Amino acid sequence: MPSYLTRRVVRSLIANEPIVHRGCLRRRAYSTLTTTSASASSRHSSGQHVALTAPPTSQRRTFFNNFSPFGKTRQETLEANTDPGIDKLMELSKKKRMQARLPSPSEIGKAFTRFFDHRQKVKKGIEDTHAQLAVEALRHIAASDGEQDGHLSQLRVIVTPGKSVFTALLRTSEPTDTHVQLAQMLYDALKSSKLTDMRVSAARTYIWVLGRAAHGLEARQVMEDLEKGEDSWKLDKTTHPHEDTEEQEISVEEQVESEAPDRGTITRSQRRKLWSAVFRATALANDETKLLEILEIMRDRGYLPLAAVADAMVRFYVRRDNLDNVQSWYQEAWRLHTSTSRHTDTMVKEVTELFRLVLQWCLSTEHVEFGHEVIRLATMRNPPKIMWDAIFVWAAGTGKGADEIGRMFNVMENSNRSTSDRDQSRVPDIATINGLVEFATSRNDPYLAERFIALGHQRGISPDSRTYVLQMEYRLKVNDVDGALIAYTNLQAMDLSDNGDVPAVNKLIVALCNSRRHDFDTIMNVTADLSDRRARFEAPAVSSLALLHLRRDEFHDVADLLSTHASQYSSSERAEIRRAILAFALDAKTPLSRSWDAYNILRSIFDEMPRPQRTEIMAHFFRQERPDLAVHVFTGMRRHSRDDTIPTIDTYATAFLECAKIRDIESLEVIHNQLKLDYNVNVDTYLYNTLIIGYTACGKPRRAMDFWDDIVSSKEGPTYNTIHIAFRACEKSPFGDLKAQEIWQKLRRQKVDIDQAMWASYVAALAGNGDNELAISTLEEAEAKNEVEIDAFLLGSLLTGAPGQEKQAEITGWAKERYPHAWEALEKIGFDVDEAGMKIAKIDRSVTP
């Protein structure tokens, strides 16, 4: 807290601005809407301070407020912090589900443009939820002019923001099938464009997304289809003057903006880059045969050698643990990287990443000899400093301690004698120490990590923000939350403009929320710091904070937290948060009011919550004997527009069975009435069975028997379970013995196989109406004909079905005298006694639909 306040005061002084404080700041710490500036991110880049203000809030609950079952205090919930244009795309998706009037294509086109321009501005990729909205938007635009003009209409929208769409896709770390679908739509719309750089960018983006989304084998087909349209593409067989003889990894912006000048033709350099992208995409598919085929195609066309291709081959065989091929291709990659006359920073970084990858693989697979060979190859020349850092990590991996690595530092420093350029001097710095600490963290060895940090102190190397981030990570791994907090405190004095600490701070928030020893204010201070910087809250952190607020009955804080951040998550991240809140709501230890709060959060924020989860919540409220809340949940499903949310037969069946358990006729009739109006559900025998069970349990067995007639007249007809259920209804219904005899006679006429359980259900139905004489005589006759064996279950069913103590006494006396062994077995099972003094045998007479 002191460091947070100090930083706030200093920023205010520098900006010559007062701090306006109204109410409790943490009440709105999550929301970006509490800032007096439209863009807090610009504040961090320009050094401007933005004061946070919050209106006074009250956490008191009143009994009659808001017409809520639990009397919530009315408070306005903050709007979602969504990207520009996304609201209109979401509106389109919802109206399509509702079959309502759709927004105009021009509105959707403008929203599409605003959204992707914003994602390019903030340098972020897109989640699968965003990609799905973009796909629906493009389909809507393409369909607006009919089939013939669809692509033209689509192109008019894409051309302006097209580069930003490609950039957003290329920045997506883990593309899904939805991203593939979006990339394909862009490619299909632009592959016949006269703008060469646009169609090349579309093709390269599509190929890249295919590879990252585990569809790499399709990338080759894309390239072959392009070359079939050679006339439209006008493939240029000459080398462009600006063409490089060696391809390097380029940034996202370069991939979509640094193509050759638009001349209407595809240059050889562009084709080579496209085939290189196909090669890398195929390498990710783990199909060696297909990969070697593409390698041969590139060799035949004169696109080889390429260092990027050799790098991809090394990575491919590393994933397959093929030592021989890793050795041969690594030597080829090393030769290509070191033989070029241009040693740019990018090239040095690429070869060092490959060097580090191979050494890590050697450590994990215990190929120590090959690792030493890689080291010897690198040290034949004086390697750059970043490569020395990788060598030190290799030394730590092979068992060398901090002292030995310290002596290796001296060896690196002595190598500077052969270098006259001071800029190329090799001296251990904090990046060297951080690499070693990161290795120790990966090995779950916090002691070794501390030794490396101490080694840095001995050499006068001060920790930087990355060091403290690593400290937080390895301390959290061993559940040292207090130690992680100390590292976090030290981190506050560092430059955090790159937000490199955000993942670790998110983990710290989760650990603090799960800890029982740290107070609420400590958690809020860490959380407020992230919010003040407009940093990303990861899904686990949001889940933990939401549960923390729910346990404190801070309903509106949960709503503000989720509405601010939930729209930025992928579908899997949203599902993770949803599952956490759902588990809290369904926990038997959670008070009912908090379960209701949790449901309202899920309903309002996570509109995509599927049917099974909503059904679980409904059943939970039934089990808590709050059928009014359960019916509310069911009605919410009934009114929903999503096909995966509206009730099905199973949903209705669950509701009817839960009503039966608590014997709530009002809720049963409400839901049954909704079933009558539901044209999406065709009532079958299974659902009729649940209705019979429900109405019988709720004291209306005669109404239940009406459904028996519906079943008999249906095409599907009754099942064995239906017959048992019908006999239970007859058992409770006035004059039900007559209906039971009618059903029984029909079974006998049709020669249906009748087992022991069916006999038990039938005689219980006879006894249920007080006709002990008929029930007993039926059993005795059946036994004489060897149709049934009198056992404990049958006697227990007969006794339980009999109404009144006098009738039960008659059956008890008869059973003891006529079947003493079966009765003795029943007595061993035991009896319960209800409030009316009636005996209930401890046998399982439950029926299932």
At a glance:
With 849 residues, this protein is an all-alpha fold. Strand 1 and strand 2 form a beta hairpin.
Secondary-structure topology with pairs:
Blueprint (H helix, E strand, L loop, with lengths): L1 H14 L24 H7 L39 H13 L6 H17 L6 H17 L1 H14 L2 H9 L6 H14 L5 H17 L6 H10 L1 H4 L18 H6 L10 H16 L4 H13 L6 H13 L3 H17 L5 H21 L2 H12 L5 H13 L4 H13 L15 H13 L3 H13 L6 H13 L3 H11 L10 H13 L5 H13 L6 H13 L3 H11 L5 H16 L5 H14 L5 H13 L3 H12 L10 H14 L2 H12 L8 H13 L3 H12 L7 H13 L3 H14 L6 H13 L3 H13 L7 H10 L3 H14 L1 H10 L1 E3 L5 E3 L8
Antiparallel strand pairs: 1-2
Radius of gyration, in Å, reads 36 Å
Shape: elongated
Strands, count: 2
Strand content: under 5%
Please list the strands of the largest sheet in the order they lie side by side.
1-2
What count of helical segments does DSSP give? 43
Report on the architecture of this protein.
The chain is mainly alpha-helical. It has a two-stranded antiparallel sheet. Strand 1 and strand 2 form a beta hairpin. The protein is elongated, with a radius of gyration of 36 Å. This is Complex I intermediate-associated protein 84, mitochondrial.
Which terms summarize this structure?
849 residues; two-stranded antiparallel sheet; 43 helices; elongated
